[in-house]
Amino acid sequence: MNRSEGQTRDAIETQAAAYLAASLGDLDPAARQAIADWIECDPRHAVAYAQAEVAWDAGERLKGQDFSTQASLRPPSIQLARGVTRRRLVAGASVAAAAAVFGAPVFVWLARATRYSTAIGEARDVALADGSRVHLNTDSQVEVALSAARRQLSLVRGEAYFDVAHDAKRPFDVAVPGGVVRAIGTAFNIRLRGAIVELTVTHGIVGVRTAEGVMRRIPAGESAVIQPRTVAVGKMDESAIAKRVAWRERMILLNGETVGEAVAEFNRYRAAPILIGDSRIAGLRIGGRFRTDESSDFLQALEQTLPVHSAEEDSGSVLLMYADQTT
User: Fold this and answer.
1) 51 near 16, Cβ under 8 Å?
2) Mean pLDDT of residues grouped by 10 in the chain (327 residues)?
3) Which pLDDT score is estimated for 71?
4) Does the N-terminal or the C-terminal CB of the chain have fewer CB atoms within 10 Å?
5) Sheet of 187-193: strands edge to edge?
6) Phi-psi region of 269 (alpha: psi -120 to 50; beta: other; left: phi over 0)
7) How far is 142 from 152, CA to CA, in rounded Å?
């Protein structure tokens, strides 16, 4: 990269951060249109705006840290919005990324989309006007904008299963951090895992294109890990797919996962977390079938099969300690 290219990218990223900061407040129609025009005039603008949104959300997810620590994860101009209440743009940066990578001419704003969300431990099924259905897992949010010409969605956080009604004239785009998943008539699961996106295709074929222009077609029976520069694809057998989507039946399936991995999964559904108080516990392995809302059964299985003792604290959290078998 030469010096002028680097300066151009810096200028674009700085402008994207400034526009995102401005969008957090109340804007008049002219200001909104100015931002939309800037995003649509160059694919690099849309990608930079999407990355600014992802950086903001990454900062929001840091709990128990002061603003100065969070701000370090955001582009410099985002810090201008320190005193502003965060309001997500519908389709926002993610739909901007969709416009960039699939050539969509329309940028969808807050007033034209609908937001659906779930609380911790809650699941929800949403029937869309086109006949599609969106199934939301715990602590998840999706934003939907349907028109006569387009079906645009953005998975803002968490996990969702999309059962897409066939409509060859209206592709079904789900924008995620770093890329877009496109389908016409199919079914697939998307889970946001920090900086990566986990896609599992259960029916049909979907297309994936990242913010960096990497394109892949993912058929049923395969999964993909999506990042801005890469799409890593792998085949899955029926049991592995069933495990990925077991949450739709309010179940967690474990087959030799470590206790650390299992605890992280159960904590998605708990307001008060399970805590591992001894490093020897985390690497132990466990299997079983458990309800997402019955972590007590999981804790009982731990104590019956492994050298683990659990103790519930006043806050509702559960502390796992190693049970020394020699005493």
Assistant:
1) yes
2) 53 80 73 76 67 57 39 33 35 49 39 85 96 97 91 95 94 92 93 91 94 89 90 92 96 95 96 95 95 95 95 94 70
3) 34
4) C
5) 124-127, 133-136, 159-163, 187-193, 196-203, 222-226, 231-235
6) alpha
7) 11
Write the single-letter amino acid at 219: P
pLDDT for the residue numbered 307 = 95
Q: β-strands 205-210, 141-146: how paired?
A: unpaired
Please report where in the chains the tokens 């299997």 appear, as a residue: 287
> Over the chain, what HEC string results?
CCHHHHHHHHHHHHHHHHHHHHHCCCCCHHHHHHHHHHHHCCHHHHHHHHHHHHHHHHHHHCCCCCHHHHHCCCCHHHHHHCCCCCCCCCCHHHHHHHHHHHCCCCCCCHHHCEEEECCCCCCEEEECCCCCEEEECCCCEEEEEECCCCEEEEEEECEEEEECCCCCCCCEEEEECCEEEEECCCEEEEEEECCEEEEEEEECEEEEEECCCCEEEEECCEEEEECCCCEEEEECCHHHHHHHCHHHHCEEEEEEEEHHHHHHHHHCCCCCCEEECCHHHHCCEEEEEEECCCHHHHHHHHHHHCCEEEEECCCCCEEEEECCCCC
Q: Which residues are paired to 251 by β-bridges?
A: 291
Which one-letter amino acid corresponds to residue 68?
Answer: S
Asked whether 320 and 292 are in contact (CB, 8 A), the reply is no
Tell me the torsion sign for CA atoms 75, 80, 83, 87. Answer: negative
Task: State the pLDDT at residue 229.
Answer: 84
